[in-house]
TrEMBL record:
<feature type="binding site">
    <location>
        <position position="39"/>
    </location>
    <ligand>
        <name>ATP</name>
    </ligand>
</feature>
<keyword id="KW-0547">Nucleotide-binding</keyword>
<feature type="binding site">
    <location>
        <begin position="200"/>
        <end position="201"/>
    </location>
    <ligand>
        <name>ATP</name>
    </ligand>
</feature>
<keyword id="KW-0173">Coenzyme A biosynthesis</keyword>
<protein>
    <recommendedName>
        <fullName>4-phosphopantoate--beta-alanine ligase</fullName>
        <ecNumber>6.3.2.36</ecNumber>
    </recommendedName>
</protein>
<comment type="similarity">
    <text>Belongs to the archaeal phosphopantothenate synthetase family.</text>
</comment>
<dbReference type="Pfam" id="PF02006">
    <property type="entry name" value="PPS_PS"/>
</dbReference>
<dbReference type="GO" id="GO:0015937">
    <property type="term" value="P:coenzyme A biosynthetic process"/>
</dbReference>
<dbReference type="InterPro" id="IPR038138">
    <property type="entry name" value="PPS/PS_sf"/>
</dbReference>
<comment type="function">
    <text>Catalyzes the condensation of (R)-4-phosphopantoate and beta-alanine to 4'-phosphopantothenate in the CoA biosynthesis pathway.</text>
</comment>
<keyword id="KW-0067">ATP-binding</keyword>
<feature type="binding site">
    <location>
        <begin position="188"/>
        <end position="189"/>
    </location>
    <ligand>
        <name>ATP</name>
    </ligand>
</feature>
<keyword id="KW-0436">Ligase</keyword>
<dbReference type="GO" id="GO:0016881">
    <property type="term" value="F:acid-amino acid ligase activity"/>
</dbReference>
<dbReference type="GO" id="GO:0005524">
    <property type="term" value="F:ATP binding"/>
</dbReference>
<comment type="subunit">
    <text>Homodimer.</text>
</comment>
<feature type="binding site">
    <location>
        <begin position="182"/>
        <end position="184"/>
    </location>
    <ligand>
        <name>ATP</name>
    </ligand>
</feature>
Amino acid sequence: MTEIESDHPRAESLRVREKLVNGFEKGLVVPEGLSAHGRGEAFDYILGEETSNLARKAIETATATLLEAENPVISVNGNTAALVPGEVVELAGEVGAKIEVNLFHRSPEREKLIAEHLISHGASEVLGVEEEFAARIPEIHSDRRKVDERGIKAADVVLVPLEDGDRTEALKELGKTVIAIDLNPMSRTAQAADVTIVDNIVRSLPLMIKEARDLSEVSSNKREGAVWGFDNEQNLGSTINLMLGRLEELSQT
């Protein structure tokens, strides 16, 4: 990995890019994943590369939703595995969630690589790689229709970081609660999800881990209050207004 000086103005962004390149070289990330990250990074610039209070509210709601779920699952693609493998494992442990590999550009070899990568970061079990437990969601027309019958197929709540809109909509149609992490508040994923965290995953997952520890100390009634008091449409609208304000501010400086 290229050494990045800590005083470089783009140091953190460059470190994230290096993780993706490293993931690409290992076979975890596909070329389309690099393109998707670049698109998201453009929105992060507008956000000021900071986690907004609106995103923090969504993080609180998302974490409370996972804690209150009966069978929560964290869906992992190549970019997520490359960027935050340890955080995925840690969050799953805090909220009692299963981890499942689910890929748009799917191959058995890549699924196994990602599963092994997560296991090397502490996961005791990773679903989505054993054909004997494979199920299909007919509402999905991409390779992501393949799910694990023990995981996403049976889940009531699914965290889908760095997701595509088709599967988010299909999971909603199946009656599942969907939590998305998406830097674009106007995407189909963001608009279709029940809770959308408009933030960079490298910032939001550590915050979710901390939130899970804090919320585990309060009553279930308080966690349910955080869930029912959240309006995703309103939060997204406010986030877009925040972005417009940032652009207006930048245009004056």
